[in-house]
Design goal:
Its main location: membrane. It is found in: Cell membrane. 55% of the residues are buried. The longest helix has 33 residues, at 135-167. It is built from 16 helices and no strands. It is mostly helical and 402 residues long. The chain folds into two domains: 1-199, Growth Hormone, Chain: A, CATH 1.20.1250; 202-391, Growth Hormone, Chain: A (Up-down Bundle), CATH 1.20.1250.20.
Length: 402
């Protein structure tokens, strides 16, 4: 390499890059949250039945995986700004399609297109942070950006319910379109340059072949899956003992804990051993699932949800930084490939988590399913910990290639 990685994006400071990237990640997850209470109730979706509703929601993760396979290569060759502009424009168009309310095939297309836009935007946004931030601050900046993800999850569902009651089912998507346009303006204004990169073109599977990458992928997948896995099964388990407001508050507890914990954990990434941080995250996952499975009251479930939020932060904040290091260790070195791999792992968690818990609850009941999930994740997490790489000296690598 002939340039320092922290100056690849001309004129973009770490603060500006984190602001723009965090706003884009927030917008994508806000749309996710806004869609949850609206899409299943649209007449065009109701007419198709429960299976079609599941396909509609699952298509996002499928499209995200597909987009991620080429997004890393695109970011490496073109820089992060161009893909981000395209991703935001496509996201706005997809959101407007949701506002039409149907027919079903059009909503399915919109959901799939949203996943494509999300896949591109996630890879480019995280690469933008890594390309402008040195290792000593990268964990903190990644933690802040990841906090915006859980903020979108927290704000989306209750905001959507209010908007639908006050202004109709199209209003949440019109708001999300406006937010996407605001992000586009901020991107153009705050990120003045994005030079083409011809010396950083490896893809996600190049990074996956680096020793230790599979363990990091496992941590990311678990971190993404934990909250997504509980979403489809906890409301049914609570039944009549909890109103929609209480259910929203419970998920809000998990999101709030994750928002607070992400930047705090990020501060320790540069100094604490990764096995310690991720190990605590795995313990928190197991504890959360056991607490949820054996809970008999709302306050106990609130504790379990708080532990889930903590576990997500403990897993994702260090794993996000570690995956960028793996990119520097690959041959050839890559940033886009690192975060393409991150995005694949995250999307896999979003898809796998709800499917596994939904099937488990159907076959064995809620409590047994939570216990089984805790045991399985404990085993997988323990195996991942033994293969987890230590912190690498990325700063020395960058200085030697300046």
């Amino acid at each position: 390499m002939t340039t320092n990685v922290t100056s690849r994006v001309s004129g973009a400071t770490p603060a500006r890059a984190t602001t723009v990237a965090g706003g884009i990640l927030f917008t994508d997850m806000l749309l996710q949250g806004l869609a949850i209470p609206v899409l299943p109730l649209l007449p065009a979706v109701v007419e198709q039945g429960a299976a079609a509703t599941g396909i509609l929601f699952a298509s996002y993760a499928v499209a995200m995986v597909i987009a991620t396979l080429f997004a890393g290569h695109l970011v490496d060759r073109r820089g992060p700004k161009g893909p981000l502009v395209i991703g935001l424009i496509v996201l706005a168009i997809a959101t407007l399609l949701f506002a039409t309310g149907g027919p079903y095939w059009l909503l399915l297309v919109a959901r799939f297109v949203q996943g494509i836009a999300g896949g591109v935007a996630w890879v480019a946004a995280l690469s933008l942070i890594a390309a402008t931030t040195g290792f000593d601050k990268r964990g903190q900046m990644m933690g802040i950006a990841m906090s915006t993800v859980t903020l979108g999850v927290l704000v989306g569902p209750p905001l959507s319910g209010f908007l639908v009651d006050a202004f109709g089912p199209a209003s949440p998507f019109l708001l999300a379109t406006f937010v996407a346009i605001v992000n586009l303006v901020l991107l153009v204004a705050l990120i003045p340059g994005s030079p083409r990169q011809t010396d950083d073109t490896a893809g996600p599977f190049t990074v996956l072949r680096v020793s230790g990458s599979a363990a990091i992928v496992a941590a990311i997948t678990i971190g993404a899956a934990v909250l997504a896995a509980v979403q489809p099964v906890l409301p049914g388990h609570l039944g009549a003992q909890a109103t929609s407001t209480i259910i929203g508050v419970l998920f809000g507890v998990a999101a709030l804990v994750s928002i607070i914990a992400n930047p705090i954990v990020g501060r320790f990434v540069a100094s604490a051993p990764p096995r310690v941080l991720i190990g605590i995250g795995i313990v928190a996952v197991v504890a959360a699932l056991l607490v949820l499975g054996w809970s008999t009251s709302i306050w106990q479930i609130a504790i379990g949800m708080g532990l889930l939020g903590l576990s997500s932060a403990m897993l994702l904040a260090p794993a996000t930084t570690l995956i960028s290091e793996q990119g520097f260790r690959s041959n050839p070195p890559t940033l886009g490939g690192s975060f393409a791999l991150y995005n694949l792992a995250y999307a896999a968690g979003l898809a796998i988590g709800p499917l596994l818990t939904g099937f488990g609850v159907q076959q064995t009941g809620f409590t047994t399913a939570m216990v089984i999930a805790a045991v399985v994740l404990a085993v997988l997490g323990g195996i991942a910990l033994t293969k987890l790489p230590g912190r690498q000296n990325v700063t020395a690598y960058e200085d030697s290639h300046a």
